[in-house]
Design brief:
By secondary structure, the protein is mainly alpha-helical. It contains six helices and four strands, in the order E-E-H-E-H-E-H-H-H-H. Helix 1 runs parallel beside helix 2.
Length: about 110
């Protein structure tokens, strides 16, 4: 919920709404980590991915893919920028691809 102090009314037409974006990233990251350790199917990381670094965290926690949501509302090119940043991270770390870092925190510590 948010309130517009000028109009003294709720900012959202429905008064309340869902929580998304960076606020949920720590919880989403934990859930991806737990799910990836518990199942043998691909897990998609969703929640608070605003940068390439955020996306890489989800891959390290075990995600096979990520979804960019809120960042796209702020910057329509966010997904492209995040993809480029992931590629730069992989090149800098001399990794051949996402599969090489996926779930790495589960394998190292």
């Amino acid at each position: 919920m948010a309130v517009d102090t000028k109009t003294m009314k709720p900012s959202l037409s429905t008064i309340t709404g869902g929580l998304s974006g960076p606020a949920i990233k720590p919880v989403a990251l934990r859930m991806v980590w737990q799910a990836a350790m518990a199942v043998k199917i691909p897990v998609i990381g969703i929640g608070g991915i605003m940068t390439a670094s955020d996306a890489v965290e989800f891959f390290l926690a075990g995600a096979s893919a990520v979804q960019v949501g809120t960042a796209s509302f702020i910057d329509p090119q966010a997904a492209v920028k995040i993809l480029q940043g992931i590629e730069e991270y992989l090149i800098a770390g001399n990794f051949s691809g996402i599969t090489e870092i996926r779930g790495l925190i589960n394998r190292t510590g």
